[in-house]
Design brief:
Elements: H1 7-19, H2 23-33, H3 40-53, H4 57-69, H5 75-92, H6 95-108, H7 115-123, H8 135-144, H9 153-184, H10 194-204, H11 208-217, E1 221-231, E2 237-246, E3 249-253, E4 263-269, E5 277-288, E6 291-298, H12 301-315
Antiparallel strand pairs: 1-2, 1-4, 2-3, 3-6, 4-5, 5-6
Length: 316
């Protein structure tokens, strides 16, 4: 990360990481931005939301309290933040504290959201169905802390990348499920021994010759960049170091094992850029101990241009 980044840039970068569910990395950036008094309150709220999404509820409650203690929010903003803290207390089973929070919110705003249903639920010792939270409130809290902030053009582009990345997850899962069903019903697979099925899969995997041809078409530049990768369903996820890079692929060194043919999503963190390059689809072409090669199979033109520029800079 560039040491010259301002608190605002750390905060904006944290928002991007949070939107692509890289919560630990986002928390690090929010903590850096919290050192600036202008960002302390809203940074702690964002930390709390990340911790909550990661299932670290006790820490999330503490972060919510730290944010509220700064007294930098409007009355309306405080009510929404308290509502989220109340939901976190519900998750912990701390119903008495949760009721205190909800009671205070209702005193200030009797018609606030679904508080009546939630309070009835809690007073019934938590029995019965839990009322559903208002889906728009999470979005509201995300926006509360960036009101009045003028996002940089590259930041807007990064957020747009993140939006496409997340929306593509559902489509990817549906496509994979359909493909698996088609393979299962394929006549060629019926009656075929399991060993032959696996043998045919191995034969379809790219060979070292294929990799050589790919490398000749797209020469890779030696780099050392931080990266994060994950499968569509996040069954596999981890951090790695990019060693080679081209506009159409890269070599990654990581202790996390992946399988040839696996489809991953990848974030590349340039040393001098505030925002990661988000590759929506990358297929594992080969593996070796603690290394694997990726071919970018789904990459937006704007991101590809950024990577091309980075490669030219590194090669110069």
């Amino acid at each position: 990360m560039n040491k010259q980044m301002t608190a605002g840039e750390y905060y904006e970068h944290g928002l991007v990481l949070k939107r692509v569910q890289m919560f630990n990395q986002a928390i690090g950036d929010f903590r850096r931005s919290a050192l600036d008094p202008d960002y302390t309150g809203k940074a702690h709220v964002q930390i709390a939301l990340c911790l909550n999404s990661a299932g670290r509820y006790e820490e999330a409650v503490m972060a919510f309290r730290q944010g509220l203690a700064t007294r930098t929010f409007s009355a309306e903003e405080e009510r929404h933040i308290l509502y989220h803290m109340g939901q976190t207390l519900e998750s912990l089973g701390r119903y008495e504290e949760c009721l205190e929070v909800y009671t205070w919110i209702r005193k200030e705003d009797p018609g606030f959201g679904d508080l009546v249903q939630r309070m009835k639920h809690l007073r019934a010792d938590g029995s019965g169905p839990v009322p559903s939270a208002q889906g728009s409130w999470q979005t509201w809290v995300d926006e509360v802390c960036v009101r009045g902030q003028q996002l940089k053009p590259q930041m807007v582009a990064a957020l747009e990348q993140a939006r496409h990345w997340l929306s593509g997850q559902a489509d990817g899962l549906k496509s994979r499920h359909l493909l698996e069903r088609q393979r299962a019903s394929s006549p060629a697979a019926e009656g075929q021994p399991v060993s032959q099925v696996f043998r045919s899969k191995r034969q379809s995997q790219p060979t070292s010759r294929d990799r050589t041809i790919e490398s000749r078409r797209h020469p890779r530049v030696p780099v050392r960049l931080r990266s994060h990768f994950s499968s569509k369903g996040r069954e596999v996820a981890g951090d790695g170091e990019l060693r080679d890079l081209s506009p159409m692929g890269c070599r990654v060194r990581s202790i996390v094992a992946v399988l040839v043919g696996a489809d991953l999503e990848c974030c590349i963190f340039p040393q001098e850029a505030a925002n990661p390059f988000i590759i929506d689809g990358a297929t594992v072409r080969w593996t070796s101990p603690q290394e694997f090669g990726l071919a970018f199979t789904n990459i937006r033109p704007g991101v590809q241009r950024q990577i091309s520029q980075l490669c030219r800079t590194q090669a110069a």
